[in-house]
Structures are given as structure tokens and as C-alpha cells.
């Protein structure tokens, strides 16, 4: 297609080039109106070269080399990937795995009454927890409301003080608190077993 | 439109400032009160349903568990004892342990019964001493102090006047130090006040520019140290004691921002 076009341009070239200027007298040998396509650019074109065919074996070899390189990189990454911290508590000790048949308890057979009582207890518990949750939420609302009221009042009194009060307290973090314990600590208690030292393995993350 | 939105807060601000300037509203004194609370040291006692459910969970736990080393050993001991009794030939005498699992268990039980846990009832509880934090370990305690109000002294949360140039949080810290000395270590939980109370001065002590006080409460957790107040009487009170001691309205304002104890 390209080739034919090129030939056609070449043939028609001389006439069209010489006659396309508007001042020239129209002495076109063609009866058809002047062709409106440009020729110079087309003249520079030449038929495309045929693509060199590569040896499929060489291509395959190249591909292989590339893949191998990638694989090597992945392997290196995997090797250096951070080891996950094992959870000792979740791993069953091997001796227990061995004796698992011996260690199984006989299945408990619950009477119908017992099953019923358990189900009722579960239901009662979930009701209790719901009530507890609702009261907790209500308490949080109440406390937040109290603070909001205090802040509103402060805003009314002095805007500067209000602006100071709503600033975040940066000294609060890091914050740590020790929760309530089951039994109160004994004063001056000297542990007969010595001090407790945590010897579990430290994992550096 | 955008301009309108931008300008609206400015207009509002101007209006407010203008109104403040115009009005001869009665002036209130700003006062900061500090609520120092000692959190419970020991968990509160379980109620009926909690006890029941705990027991239930424990039975399920046991049912689903595997036998422990101790139980296996105990079973082996029993088998060995049977064999010994029946005088069979192939009893390996070395294998019969001298100390049985039962013996171990008895010894451990004995040791446990010897051990005494720390008592929930402290010395102060027995004496009815309210001036120390070492009381009512299962409850929240709030510090109250004698505060001079006008001519009489009332026992309320420590409070003091705000001074020009400090933030309310700084006032709270200063007030607490003035009342309780430097030994008391507390942690304030916010820059913002957590509660509010307003009262009018009695007719006699009212002045033109000051008719009452607005109290802003700050909340802090007790961390350690003692209150320095030999001559003054500081008390650490539970919720119910607060209710008895404080004036009803004041108490309501205070309890408004405190965690309620449900037992």
C-alpha cells in the first residue's frame, strides 16, 4: 500500500510541485481539481525494512536467564525476610502430642437438665453483660457531657482559657497504669522462691 | 458564597465581643477545683451471676482439657499400687516411686494453707481512719480537704482562685500543691476541666463586680506519696461518704464526672 502511494507521488510530483503556487497560471494538464496532499514528507519516506528474524533458541535462552536472575533475587529476599516470632504458648509440646490418646479425658455425658441449665446460664449471662455494657456507655456519655458543659461554661467566661483548655496534653503520653489486682500486695513480703526473673527469649523486631 | 462563609465566624466573633462590652453582666470569679482520685487497688468482689458464670467456665475448661503430667503420674501410681498389692512378679521396684503424686499434692495443699494472702481490710479500715489512701482497697477514693470559703471552713475538693496569666491547668496544679504539699504525686488527665459547679456568695460578702464563683474541676489520678497535712484534715472518701459529706448540689456536680460504683 505504502509502496504504491510512494510511486504515485513520484510520478505526479513534477507537475504538481511546479504548478501549486497561486501566482502561477493554471496550466495543469489534469482536468481534476488540484490535489491537496503534500508531497515533500512522503518523498522522504521509504519502504520499511523487513524485521530481522531472531533465532528462537537465543530468545528462549535470554528469557531463561532473566527468569533465573529474578528467582535468585526472590530467594535472597525470602532468606533475609524477618523471622516471625513464634508463640510458645500456642505450640503443643511434642511429648503431649505423642501421648495425646493417653491424655484425653473420657467424654462427659451431660443430663438433659444440665444442658438446659447451662443454656439458661449462658442466656442470663449475655443479658447481664448487655445491661452492663449499656450502663457503661451511659456513664461515658454522662462524663463526656459533664466535660462538655464545663468547657461551654469556660468558653462563656473566657475564650483564651477555653483555647488553652482544649489544647492536647502532650505530657500524658506515654501513659501506663497498673490495673487492680486480685489480692492486695503484702507489705515487705520476702518471696521464699527468690525474685522472679523473666527468662523468656527476647525477639528483636 | 465562599466569602460569606469565610466572614460569618468573624461577624459572630465581633457580635459577641460587642455584646460582652455592652452588657453589664454580673462577674463571676473563676475557681479551679481538683479531684484527686485513688483508683481501686483490688478488683471489686464478684456478684452472684459473675460467680456462677466463672464456675461454669471453669468446668468447661476442665472438661475440654487434656490430662496434666501430675494426673498421669497419679494414675500410674495407682496402677503400681494395685500391682504391689496383688504381689505379681513383674513389679519393678525401682519404678515404684517413693513419693507418690498424692503425697506431692498433699504437701502443696499444706503449703497453700500456710500462706496468708494480703488482707483486703487494712488497719485504717479497722480503725475507721479516713486520712490515708490505704483504705477501702476495692473502691475509688476521692481526696477532700478543708477549704476556707468566706468566713467558714468547709470540707470539699481542694480549690483555689485562678490568677491572671496562668491556664486553668496550671491553676489546678498550683492549688493542689498549696493544699497538699509537694510529696503528693498525681497525674492530671487532661488540660480541659471535667466538671463544673457554680455558686453565689452569701448576700453579705457579695460585691458589685463579683457575685459568685464558677468552679472548674480538674481530674487527677493519685500516684503515690502522702498528703502533707498534719494539722489540716484531709480525707480520702468513697462515693457514699462523699454523698454524706458534701452539700447535695455540689455532690451532684462532682459525681457527674466520676465513675459510678455499681456495688
From TrEMBL, chain A:
Keywords per UniProt: Coiled coil, Mitochondrion, Ribonucleoprotein, Ribosomal protein, Transit peptide
Pfam families (alphabetical): MRP-L28 (PF09812)
InterPro entries: Ribosomal_mL40, Ribosomal_mL40_metazoa/plant
Record keyword Mitochondrion present: yes
Coiled coil (UniProt feature): 60-87
CC per GO annotation: mitochondrial large ribosomal subunit
Main subcellular location: mitochondrion
Entry keyword Ribonucleoprotein: yes
Compartments, as annotated in UniProt: Mitochondrion
UniProt family annotation: Belongs to the mitochondrion-specific ribosomal protein mL40 family.
Protein name, UniProt field: Large ribosomal subunit protein mL40
Automatic annotation (TrEMBL), chain B:
Classification of source organism: Eukaryota, Metazoa, Ecdysozoa, Arthropoda, Hexapoda
Membership in a protein family: Belongs to the mitochondrion-specific ribosomal protein mL46 family.
Keywords, alphabetical: Mitochondrion, Ribonucleoprotein, Ribosomal protein, Transit peptide
Source organism per UniProt: Papilio machaon (Old World swallowtail butterfly)
The Large ribosomal subunit protein mL46 N-terminal domain, residue ranges: 28-128
Pfam families reported in the protein's UniProt record: MRP-L46 (PF11788), NUDIX (PF00293)
GO molecular function: structural constituent of ribosome
Extent of the signal sequence: none
Protein name as annotated: Large ribosomal subunit protein mL46
Compartments, as annotated in UniProt: Mitochondrion
Any GO CC annotation of this UniProt entry: mitochondrial inner membrane
Domain Nudix hydrolase as annotated: residue spans: 156-252
Amino acid at each position: 500500500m505504502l509502496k504504491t502511494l510512494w510511486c504515485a507521488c513520484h510520478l505526479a510530483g513534477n507537475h504538481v510541485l511546479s504548478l501549486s503556487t497561486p501566482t502561477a497560471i493554471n496550466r495543469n494538464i489534469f482536468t481534476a481539481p488540484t490535489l491537496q496532499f503534500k508531497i515533500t514528507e512522503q518523498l522522504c519516506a521509504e519502504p520499511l525494512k523487513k524485521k530481522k528474524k531472531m533465532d528462537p533458541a537465543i530468545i528462549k535462552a535470554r528469557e531463561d536467564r532473566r527468569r533465573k536472575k529474578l528467582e535468585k533475587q526472590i530467594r535472597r529476599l525470602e532468606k533475609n525476610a524477618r523471622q516471625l516470632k513464634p508463640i510458645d504458648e500456642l505450640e503443643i509440646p511434642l511429648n503431649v502430642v505423642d501421648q495425646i490418646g493417653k491424655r484425653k479425658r473420657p467424654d462427659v455425658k451431660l443430663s438433659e437438665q444440665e444442658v438446659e441449665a447451662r443454656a439458661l446460664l449462658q442466656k442470663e449471662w449475655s443479658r447481664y453483660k448487655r445491661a452492663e455494657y449499656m450502663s457503661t456507655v451511659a456513664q461515658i456519655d454522662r462524663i463526656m457531657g459533664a466535660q462538655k458543659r464545663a468547657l461551654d461554661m469556660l468558653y462563656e467566661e473566657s475564650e483564651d482559657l477555653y483555647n488553652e483548655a482544649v489544647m492536647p496534653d502532650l505530657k500524658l503520653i506515654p501513659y501506663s497504669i497498673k490495673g487492680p489486682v486480685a489480692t492486695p500486695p503484702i507489705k515487705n513480703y520476702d518471696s521464699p522462691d527468690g525474685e522472679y526473673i523473666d527468662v523468656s527469649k527476647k525477639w528483636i523486631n | 458564597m465562599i466569602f460569606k462563609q469565610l466572614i460569618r465566624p468573624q461577624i459572630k466573633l465581633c457580635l459577641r465581643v460587642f455584646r460582652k462590652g455592652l452588657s453589664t453582666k454580673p462577674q463571676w470569679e473563676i475557681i479551679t477545683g481538683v479531684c484527686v482520685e485513688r483508683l481501686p487497688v483490688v478488683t471489686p468482689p464478684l456478684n452472684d451471676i459473675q460467680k456462677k458464670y466463672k464456675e461454669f467456665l471453669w468446668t468447661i475448661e476442665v472438661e475440654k482439657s487434656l490430662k496434666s503430667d501430675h494426673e498421669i503420674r497419679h494414675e500410674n501410681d495407682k496402677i503400681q499400687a494395685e500391682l504391689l498389692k496383688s504381689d505379681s512378679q513383674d513389679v519393678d521396684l525401682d519404678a515404684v516411686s517413693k513419693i507418690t503424686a498424692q503425697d506431692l499434692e498433699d504437701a502443696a495443699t499444706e503449703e497453700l494453707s500456710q500462706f496468708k494472702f494480703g488482707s483486703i481490710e487494712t488497719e485504717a479500715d479497722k480503725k475507721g481512719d479516713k486520712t490515708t489512701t490505704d483504705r477501702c482497697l476495692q473502691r475509688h477514693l476521692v481526696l477532700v480537704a478543708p477549704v476556707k470559703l468566706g468566713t467558714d471552713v468547709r470540707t470539699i475538693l481542694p480549690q483555689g482562685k485562678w490568677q491572671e496569666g496562668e491556664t486553668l491547668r496550671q491553676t489546678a496544679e498550683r492549688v493542689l500543691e498549696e493544699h497538699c504539699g509537694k510529696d503528693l504525686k498525681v497525674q492530671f488527665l487532661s488540660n480541659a476541666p471535667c466538671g463544673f459547679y457554680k455558686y453565689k456568695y452569701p448576700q453579705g460578702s457579695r460585691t458589685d463586680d463579683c457575685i459568685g464563683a464558677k468552679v472548674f474541676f480538674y481530674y487527677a489520678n493519685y500516684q503515690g506519696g502522702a498528703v502533707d497535712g498534719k494539722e489540716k484534715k484531709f480525707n480520702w472518701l468513697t462515693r457514699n461518704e462523699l454523698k454524706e459529706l458534701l452539700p447535695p448540689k455540689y455532690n451532684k456536680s462532682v459525681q457527674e464526672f466520676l465513675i459510678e460504683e455499681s456495688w
